[in-house]
Design goal:
Layout lengths: L10 H11 L4 E7 L2 E6 H17 L7 E5 L4 H12 L3 E4 L6 H11 L1 E6 L5 H4 L5 E4 L7 E2 H4 L16 E6 L9 E5 H14 L9 E4 L6 H14 L2 E4 L6 H8 L3 E4 L1 H16 L2 H18 L6 H19 L7 E4 L6 H9 L4 E6 L6 E4 L12 E2 L3 E4 L4 E6 L5 E2 L3 H7 L6 E10 L2 E7 L4 E2 L5 E2 L1 H8 L7 E5 L6 E6 L5 H10 L10 E6 L19 H7 L1 H8 L6
Parallel strand pairs: 1-11, 3-4, 3-5, 5-6, 6-7, 10-11, 10-12, 12-13, 13-14, 25-26
Antiparallel strand pairs: 1-2, 8-9, 9-19, 14-15, 15-16, 17-18, 18-20, 20-21, 22-23, 24-25
Helix pairs in contact: 1-2, 1-3, 1-8, 2-3, 7-8, 10-11, 11-12, 11-13
């Protein structure tokens, strides 16, 4: 389906326009214990109207906050659109967060009604919400099917593009989360600018597979509202543990992902290849020829060889991803160019980009016909970038209205000229943005040398023996590596880590290694919901062991 032109300025307006344009096309699907469920856009609109009627019956008023704390599903979207159409503010909550964090967000936002999909923790019951509705059957909680009236409500919307659409609590790496306020215009302007940057995606029918949490703006804007704008069919995955099976079943053409998913796949691929010299050579051959073809360097016999390599090797890899995957929107964290090059050589096409919750979220992205794997792409239309002291700052329509009830925090990140200070370091070259690290994460060694830990960690993690890792060393004489690995030999781990750092300055060498039990997960508080390592949480958990480590002589 073609994208709407222009994109409506409210999110529920975007939904209504899509229903009008594609009433009988398939909109959403998911698979539960009783098999597949499918909804056309018209059927989705009927359920949205019923949820809206239920909200009106509950007595909510424009501006009230409604929470959604559930795994991705059609009902998640229906409740979101119904609330937005009434001028309510949606507060999305990570379904697997710790109950005390969820309760804090509910209290801070003053949420009136929260939609859930699992038993409710005591902390949530005590958070002050006056209504809890279950999207599916949950003991002791009224279900959505019984809560919403049989007849829908067609009340016209009483809000505009400047209305607050959502308060999204940043997962953060330390401290209490802050509520990011995004208006309808913030989000729809981001959708419109993204489609302007990659019009090819709107030129054909697509199936999206949704597995990143809708509580995160990358999935919500790109996997939710952008899919809606182009009339794509969205299939909801059953969870990360079922992702491989769901990819084969849904056969998506578009995937919104974070690097961790492909890093794991890349590590498994290299391990399998390492077990067979023939397989390793075939994989390397296919990747090299495929990438040469992608760059237009395959001519004559080389082009024919690239076709055979694709047929014999690359297609088998793509079949594990459903066999139809055309585009992967990659964001949420830094991604290794080597990983992108490897999968690009196997026939995938990545649109890697950069953004934050505070920017709705996309700031830059690579265009399909204008790509540099070392870069996170060119700024979207309508956004201006500045680089005071090397920090990436952005101004434009998708920049947040501020932090919820926290003007002090807002003033710390939005300056007098309206630029949002991202905390990331970078620069523009030939119109493309290149990130170089985090302003606040830079490690300053005792000799004054500065290390961007993200770059060092990304290089080390290219060795599959390292499952998870961070480097530490603030104020110390040398760097230490804290790692989760099946390999027990610390000297071997140190050697392998430093082998990945051969291109870095000498002061980046790893002198100490602390091997710890894993994995680091969202549940144990060491990962954010988007699978970023909570660096300070990891350091705090192993502080004594790190201190003991530095008390020992360094390994050289």
């Amino acid at each position: 389906m073609s994208a709407l032109a222009p994109v409506p300025q409210t999110i529920d307006g975007l939904f209504r326009a899509r229903v009008a344009q594609s009433p009988d096309a398939r909109a959403y699907s998911d698979r539960g214990p009783n098999g597949w469920r499918h909804f056309t856009w018209t059927e989705a609109a009927r359920t949205v109207a019923r949820v809206r009627a239920g909200l009106l019956k509950s007595g909510v008023q424009p501006g009230d906050r409604i929470g959604v704390c559930a795994y991705n599903s059609p009902e998640w979207i229906f409740c979101d659109i119904a609330a937005l159409s009434l001028g309510l503010t949606v507060v999305p909550l990570f379904f697997n967060d710790r109950p005390e964090n969820t309760a804090y967000c509910l209290r801070d936002a003053g949420v009136q009604i929260v939609f859930v999909d699992r038993p409710v923790a005591p902390e949530i019951l005590a958070s002050g919400v006056r209504g809890i509705v279950a999207l599916k059957e949950v003991a002791g909680v009224v279900s959505l099917a019984h809560w919403m009236p049989e007849d829908g409500d067609e009340t016209p919307p009483g809000h505009d593009a400047a209305t607050l659409a959502t308060i999204v609590y940043t997962s953060g790496t330390t401290g209490r989360p802050k509520g990011v306020m995004l208006t309808h215009a913030n989000i729809t302007s981001n959708v419109a600018a993204l489609l302007d940057a990659i019009p090819e995606v709107a030129a054909r029918d697509h199936t999206f597979l949704s597995f990143l949490p809708l509580s995160h703006m990358l999935e919500r804007t790109v996997g939710g509202y952008t899919a809606m704008a182009i009339g794509a069919h969205t299939v909801f995955s059953r969870g990360i543990s079922e992702l491989a099976a769901d990819l084969r079943a849904a056969r998506p053409t578009v995937l919104v992902s974070v690097p961790k998913v492909f890093e794991r796949s890349y590590a498994r691929m290299k391990e399998e290849a390492a077990a067979s010299p023939v397989r390793a050579r075939a994989l390397g051959w296919a990747q090299a020829l495929g990438y040469a073809a992608y760059e237009g360097r395959a001519r004559g016999l080389k082009r024919i060889a690239a076709g055979f390599a694709d047929l014999l090797v690359a297609r088998a890899v793509r079949r594990k991803l459903g066999g139809r995957l055309s585009y992967v929107f990659m964001g949420g964290a830094a991604v290794s160019p080597a990983l992108l090059k490897a999968f690009t050589g196997l026939g995938l096409r990545f649109v890697q980009g950069y953004g934050l919750t505070e920017t709705s979220p996309v700031i830059t992205c690579n265009r399909l016909a204008d790509h540099d794997l070392e870069s996170v792409g060119r700024p979207l239309a309508g956004l201006a970038l500045a680089f005071p002291e090397g920090e990436v700052c952005v101004k434009g329509a998708s920049v947040m209205a501020g932090y919820w009830r926290n003007p002090e925090a807002t003033a710390q990140v939005i300056d007098g000229e309206g630029y949002f200070h991202t905390g990331d370091l970078g620069h523009l070259r030939d119109g493309r943005l290149y990130l170089t690290g985090r302003a606040k994460d830079v490690i300053v060694l005792s000799n004054g040398e500065k290390v961007a830990p993200g770059d060092v960690e990304q290089a080390i993690l290219e060795d599959p023996v390292f499952e998870q890792a961070i480097v530490v060393g603030e104020g110390r004489g040398a760097l230490a590596l804290v790692a989760v690995s099946p390999l027990a030999d610390l000297e071997d781990l140190q050697a392998r880590a430093n082998a990945r750092l051969h291109a870095f300055p000498g002061y980046t060498r790893i002198r100490y290694v602390l091997r710890v039990a894993g994995p680091w997960t969202v549940e144990n508080g060491l990962l954010t919901p988007t699978m970023k390592v909570r660096r300070q949480e990891v350091e705090a958990r192993y502080r004594e062991a790190i201190e003991d480590l530095y008390a020992q002589p360094a390994h050289h």
